[in-house]
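Saturday, quiet lab. Running sequence design on the C-alpha cells for the scaffold JK sent over.
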C-alpha cells in the first residue's frame, strides 16, 4: 500500500486542515508547558521544536506514520550494512567508518573494520609526517600549503568541517579547497603559493570525475613547470578506489588512501576523504570527530522514536513539506564557524531525497526534499529575513546556536544569542495591527499611525532551534551524523533510495557529448536550437 493510501496519512491531512485555523501564539498562550512538551535533551544537544505548528495529536500521528512504514526495521537494515542502495547494488556502511567498538562490521561476509583501521592508521602516520616536517617536498622544504582537489562529497564535507573547526587548526599548515571547473578557482588559489612548499590531494572515488581531473592536470602542469616531473611523487597524493588510474597520473601507489564502494560520496567525510580535515586539525581531533559521529549512530540506532533526534527532525520536515505545503527550509546557523553548513547540507539532503521516483520505480504523488538554503547568523538578518517575516511564504526555519562560543571575544556571544532567540520568537509570535498601532502611539518619539500596516508581522512561521553546548570535533561529528540519519529517516518515510543520484549523472552525459563540439572536434549536430545557438556564439566569439 502506498503511504498516501494509509489511514495515518489521511488522519494527518485532517489534522493539517484543523491546524491552519490555529496560530502559534495561541498554542503558547494555552499551554505554559509547551516548551517542555516539545523539546528534547539528548546527547548533550537541546532540540526545541515547540515553535513548530504541531500539537500532541499531530506528533502522535506522525509517530504512528513512522510505525506504519516500519521505520525500526529500516534502521536495523542500515545498521546491518544491507544493500540499501538497490539501484547500484551497493551496501550503505558509512557508519562503519566511525565505528568505535572492537566488534566486527560485515560486508559480503567479511569484516571491514581491519581495512578501516588500516587506512586510519595510514592517515595518522601521514599527518604526523607532514606536521613534524618528516615529509618534505622535493627540494627539502617543509609542506606549508595543502590543496584538496575534489568536487561534491570530495570537497563539501572536508571544506565545511575545516571551516567549522578553525579554532582547532594546526600551526604551520594551511589547507585550501579547489572544486570548480572554472579556471579562476584553481588559478587564484595557486597565485600566491610556492610549489616547493605545496602538497596536492586529488580526491576522486573513480579518478575520472571531469572537473577534478582537469584541475588535477592543471595543478600537475603548474608543479612540474617549476620543479620537474620527479616532483609529482613528493607533492601529490590521492584518495581513490581506482588504483590503475592513479598510477597512470604518476602518483606513487604508496601515496594512495583508499576507500570503498560501500561509502557514498556525500557520506564520505568520515573516510580518507577527510584527509585534508585531518591535516588541518590533527589526527587526534579527527578521531574525536569520528567518535562524535559514532555517538550519534548509537543514539539513532537505540533510542525510541519519541526521543530520537534524527527521527524527530525527519517527521517535522515531512509535516511541513507534505501537509503544510512548505517548499523550502531555511538553515540559519548562528555561528560563523558553521557558515558552510547550509552548502554542505544542500548536497546531503537534496541530492539524497530530491527524487520523483520511489524505491519501487513508481512516481511519487507527494513532495519530497524541500529546497534548502540559508546563511550564517546576523548576516542573514540583513539579507533575506525580511522575506521570511513579511513575504507571505511558508518557510520553516532551523536555527543552530552554541551555548559557549568557539572564539570568545568579550561582548559578542550574548548579543548573538539574543538575536537568534529573538528571531525565532518573532517568527512565532508576529505583530498584530493593534500592537503595531499601540507601539507607534506610545513610542518616545510617536510616529504617524499610517505606518502601522507596514509594521504588521503575520507570525505563525514554524521553526526549530538546536542548541549545541560548544563547537569542537566531537560535537561537529554528532551534528553531521544527526543530519545524515535525518536524511535516511526521511527517505524511509518517503520510500526513496536516498543513496543514488541519477539526476546528477544525466547532466554529465550531455556535457561529454557537447565537449567535442565546443572544442571543434565534431560537428554540432542533433542539437535543439537553443543549445546550437549557444555553441555557435562561443565558436564565433561574439554575441
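Result came back. Writing it out in full:
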Amino acid at each position: 500500500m502506498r503511504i498516501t493510501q494509509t489511514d495515518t496519512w489521511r488522519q494527518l491531512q485532517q489534522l493539517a486542515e484543523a491546524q491552519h485555523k490555529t496560530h502559534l501564539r495561541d498554542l503558547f498562550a494555552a499551554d505554559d508547558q509547551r516548551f517542555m512538551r516539545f523539546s528534547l535533551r539528548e546527547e548533550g544537544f537541546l532540540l526545541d521544536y515547540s515553535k513548530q505548528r504541531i500539537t500532541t495529536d499531530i506528533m502522535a500521528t506522525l509517530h504512528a506514520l513512522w510505525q506504519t512504514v516500519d521505520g525500526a526495521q529500516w534502521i536495523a537494515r542500515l545498521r546491518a550494512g544491507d544493500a540499501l542502495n538497490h539501484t547500484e547494488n551497493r551496501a550503505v556502511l558509512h557508519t562503519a567508518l566511525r565505528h568505535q567498538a572492537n566488534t566486527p562490521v560485515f560486508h559480503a561476509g567479511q569484516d571491514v573494520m581491519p581495512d578501516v583501521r588500516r587506512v586510519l592508521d595510514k592517515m595518522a602516520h601521514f599527518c604526523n609526517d607532514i606536521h613534524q616536517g618528516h615529509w618534505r617536498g622535493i627540494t627539502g622544504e617543509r609542506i606549508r600549503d595543502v590543496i584538496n582537489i575534489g568536487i561534491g562529497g570530495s570537497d563539501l564535507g572536508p571544506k565545511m568541517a575545516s571551516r567549522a573547526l578553525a579554532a582547532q587548526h594546526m600551526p604551520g599548515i594551511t589547507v585550501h579547497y579547489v572544486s570548480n571547473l572554472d579556471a579562476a578557482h584553481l588559478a587564484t588559489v595557486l597565485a600566491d603559493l610556492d610549489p616547493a612548499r605545496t602538497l596536492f590531494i586529488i580526491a576522486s572515488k573513480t579518478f575520472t570525475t571531469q572537473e577534478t581531473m582537469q584541475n588535477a592536470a592543471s595543478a600537475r602542469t603548474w608543479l612540474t613547470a617549476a620543479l620537474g616531473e620527479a616532483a609529482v611523487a613528493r607533492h601529490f597524493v590521492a584518495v581513490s578506489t581506482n588504483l590503475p588510474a592513479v598510477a597512470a597520473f604518476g602518483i606513487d601507489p604508496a601515496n594512495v588512501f583508499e576507500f570503498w564502494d560501500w561509502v557514498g560520496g556525500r557520506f564520505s567525510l568520515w573516510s580518507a576523504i577527510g584527509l585534508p580535515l585531518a591535516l588541518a586539525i590533527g589526527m587526534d581531533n579527527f578521531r574525536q570527530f569520528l567518535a562524535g559521529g559514532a555517538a550519534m549512530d548509537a543514539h539513532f540506532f537505540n533510542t525510541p522514536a519519541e526521543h530520537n533526534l534524527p527521527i524527530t527532525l525527519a517527521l517535522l520536515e515531512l509535516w511541513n513539506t507534505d501537509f503544510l505545503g512548505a517548499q523550502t527550509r531555511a538553515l540559519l546557523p548562528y555561528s560563523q564557524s558553521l557558515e558552510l553548513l547550509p552548502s554542505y547540507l544542500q548536497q546531503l539532503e537534496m541530492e539524497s531525497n530530491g527524487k520523483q521516483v520511489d524505491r519501487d520505480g513508481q512516481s511519487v504523488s507527494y513532495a519530497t526534499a524541500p529546497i534548502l538554503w540559508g546563511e550564517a547568523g546576523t548576516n542573514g538578518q540583513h539579507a533575506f529575513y525580511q522575506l521570511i517575516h513579511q513575504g507571505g511564504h511558508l518557510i520553516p526555519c532551523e536555527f543552530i546556536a552554541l551555548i559557549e562560543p568557539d572564539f570568545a571575544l568579550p561582548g559578542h556571544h550574548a548579543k548573538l544569542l539574543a538575536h537568534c532567540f529573538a528571531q525565532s520568537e518573532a517568527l512565532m509570535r508576529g505583530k498584530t495591527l493593534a500592537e503595531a498601532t499601540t507601539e507607534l502611539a506610545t513610542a518616545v518619539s510617536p510616529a504617524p499611525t499610517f505606518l502601522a500596516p507596514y509594521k504588521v508581522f503575520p507570525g505563525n512561521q514554524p521553526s526549530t532551534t538546536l542548541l549545541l553546548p560548544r563547537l569542537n570535533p566531537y560535537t561537529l561529528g554528532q551534528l553531521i551524523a544527526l543530519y545524515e540519519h535525518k536524511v535516511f529517516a526521511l527517505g524511509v518515510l518517503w520510500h526513496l533510495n536516498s543513496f543514488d543520484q541519477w539526476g546528477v549523472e544525466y547532466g554529465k552525459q550531455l556535457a561529454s557529448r557537447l565537449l567535442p563540439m565546443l572544442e571543434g572536434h565534431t560537428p554540432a549536430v542533433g542539437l535543439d536550437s537553443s543549445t546550437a545557438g549557444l555553441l555557435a556564439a562561443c565558436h564565433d566569439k561574439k554575441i
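Notes for JK: The two ends are 55 Å apart (CA to CA). The domain at 111-287 is CATH 3.40.50.10490 (Rossmann fold). Ask whether to fix the surface positions before the next round.
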